[in-house]
Design goal:
By secondary structure, this protein is an alpha/beta fold. Helix content is 41%, strand content 17%. The chain has helices spanning 5-9, 25-33, 36-42, 51-61, 103-115, 118-123, 130-141, 146-164, 175-182, 222-238, 259-268, 275-279, 282-288, and strands spanning 79-84, 87-92, 168-174, 198-204, 209-216, 244-251, 272-273, 300-304, 311-315. The strands form 3 sheets. Strands 3-4-5-6-7 form a 5-stranded mixed β-sheet, sandwiched between helices. The chain has a two-stranded antiparallel sheet with strand order 1-2. Helix 2 (25-33) packs across helix 7, helix 4 packs across helix 5 and helix 10 (222-238) runs parallel beside helix 11.
Length: 316
């Protein structure tokens, strides 16, 4: 039964962001707690009447407080370069217990705190607590981690449906491992063995090996067209490999801006699905016939070990 591309495209969703996508608060708490002691020492400078001198005293007694100074400027690096009319200087905030905190070094840090505005932040009591302040900074910096978290969301979602199908599968499996395990020749999709390819998932049924790629595009761009053309080519190449098929699972509102190339691939590929297809039980139907065959109280799933060369089986 043929499928209607436009109806299929309309089932694409704009986002798959989960609740934990936006901020990894456990990471925020961990990073803040690791420097909580030093931050509380610096809290003594809040509202100081002579903050420069008080800071000098702290440095002499607790020189390790220098290691938290970069995060006060929302920087994770331990080195910061600054310059003004007096020239430039590379500040090193990696605390060394053997470092000599002489007057010249202390004055460098005093100058840094003054010129960056950190003294004013503390002296004028603009904030009440550096621990709370840094927690806010860490929350902001963690937004940079959304790209990495977002990159795995589609894979995690697809894996949930694969697990529900209770079928033998492998995660992040290399092409040469597939050839070795099942004795298939994949040179047609590896440029005669000259390129290395890692598949997001590989599913093994009684009759076939399915090579699966997944992705989600919330916005458009040239990459979508390139991906569609590339996967169409892979699908065509695998048609000549007995017992092997290529499956692509994609979604995202970005495809509505790149529908032409996707439609060409849609018309050429037998196994092209989106999330709505998975929700309708495509895996059960495809891998297990009617969706109930093959179910049992005990079954095995297989995932690639971290070293990507060994496999482990766990009974569920």
């Amino acid at each position: 039964m043929s499928r209607d591309f436009n109806k299929w495209l309309n089932t694409m969703r704009m986002s798959i962001n989960r609740y934990d996508y936006y901020v990894d608060f456990q990471k925020v708490y961990k990073n803040t707690n690791e420097i909580k002691v030093e931050l509380n020492i610096l809290n003594s400078l809040i509202g100081s009447a002579d903050i420069a001198d008080d800071f000098r005293t702290l440095l002499k007694t607790y020189p390790n407080i220098i290691r938290v100074m970069p995060i006060l400027l929302a920087k994770r690096e331990s080195e910061i370069y600054c310059q003004d009319e007096k020239g430039g200087f590379l500040y090193d905030f990696a605390y060394d217990a053997n470092q000599k905190m002489d007057n010249e070094v202390i004055e460098r840090y005093v100058y840094f705190m003054d010129k960056t505005g950190l003294f004013e932040l503390l002296e004028k009591h603009i904030i009440n607590n550096l621990v709370d302040y840094v927690m806010g900074v860490e929350t902001g910096l963690d937004s940079n981690g959304r790209k990495n978290r977002g990159g795995h969301q589609m894979e995690d979602l697809v894996e949930e449906y694969i697990k529900k199908a209770r079928i033998e599968y492998y995660k992040e499996m290399y092409l040469h491992d597939i050839e070795k395990k099942w004795g298939v020749d994949l040179s047609a999709i590896s440029a005669q063995g000259t390129t290395t390819k890692r598949w997001d998932f590989v599913v093994k049924t009684s009759e076939k090996v399915f090579l699966i790629e997944t992705n989600f595009y919330s916005s458009g761009g040239s990459k979508l067209n390139e991906t569609a053309r590339s996967y169409k080519m892979i699908a065509e190449e695998t048609e000549n490999i007995d017992g092997v098929d290529f499956m692509w699972i994609t979604d995202g509102g970005g495809w509505r801006l790149a529908k032409r190339n996707l439609q060409e691939t849609f018309n050429a590929m037998e196994y092209l699905y989106n999330i709505a297809d998975l929700e309708r039980g495509t895996f059960n139907e495809l891998f297990l016939g009617n969706g109930m065959e093959g179910y049992s109280a005990t079954y095995n799933t297989y995932v690639v070990a971290e070293n990507k060369s060994e496999y482990s089986s766990k009974e569920k």
